[in-house]
């Protein structure tokens, strides 16, 4: 199941938006407070309750309860009141948002700004659930802290958004039975060659085993290796498969720039396997690694559809706007390139005294 369209009306920063996504890779950029992470969160909040983990006998009341709880856990509004996610206006207001999938199924959600724990859900042409999973990788890596996180989250009020809990539960899964698919073996080989080792889970702790050097606990590895280790284990456990949708919020966080290329190549391999990917970024290197794949066809022999989205504020109304292009260089409002050009101009001013 792939997300084809996201429709937002009066949801948080967004007035009206109807965004057509790629079934392969989507790169979302923009200045702070323009809604990049909001887009990931709202799609995840709708998709996760429908995933394989939540499958089973359900009713409309159960569906509404699951979506409410996921919106509350992911966005964590004050007092857990979902109405606080409605775009702020004077008086009463209401949000309506929906996702359309590639099989033309659609799920719509609506609620008012005074609502606390109820939403209206409408499902159109919804057939029995396909086998899929929604995976959200937040800015903080989790593989080095998985050991006790799930039990602590279950028993105490921990001020972490629910994506961290969901990811920790996925990392807590045992390895899947049976042989890997050819696609899985290809990406596993690619990542293991980059890392020069294999991932081992023992007593809910993760280690990188390097031939001739021994085992290294995750806390001793750099963030780049931890993130690649996380991807590797999610593949080995069967969570990241051809039916998965991956949301990755700023993969460059705490990352050595030298690790950006391997991380991007890992995502490219996942997309080839069938994973639909959504990435937010502030990073020039992340954006340009993907942009090269679109500008130079010889780097993208599989013809992956990569789309670049820019979020920005209108200079007059201050409203959040967006544009979608097939190349990053085609974006008119590219905050990353704008700052890159600005720092170049400042340096030239110093050199030439202008």
Descriptive overview:
The chain folds into 2 domains: 243 residues, P-loop containing nucleotide triphosphate hydrolases (Rossmann fold, 3-Layer(aba) Sandwich), CATH 3.40.50.300; 99 residues, no CATH class. The protein contains 9 helices and 14 strands. A 6-stranded mixed beta sheet has the order 7-11-12-3-13-14, sandwiched between helices. Strands 2-1-4-5-6 form a 5-stranded antiparallel beta sheet. A 3-stranded antiparallel beta sheet has the order 8-9-10, with helices on one face. Helix 5 packs antiparallel against helix 6. The longest helix is centred in the C-terminal third of the chain and has 18 residues. The protein starts with a strand and ends with a helix. The model has no long low-confidence stretch (mean pLDDT 90). This is ATP-binding protein. Keywords: ATP-binding, Nucleotide-binding.
Mean pLDDT: 90
Distance between the termini: 55 Å
CATH architecture of the largest domain: 3-Layer(aba) Sandwich
What is the CATH H-level superfamily of the largest domain? P-loop containing nucleotide triphosphate hydrolases
Main structural class: alpha/beta
**Main beta sheet:** 6 strands, mixed
Dominant shape: globular
The number of helical segments is 9
Protein name: ATP-binding protein
Domain ATPase AAA-type core: 25-285
Pfam family, one: AAA_21
Keywords: ATP-binding, Nucleotide-binding
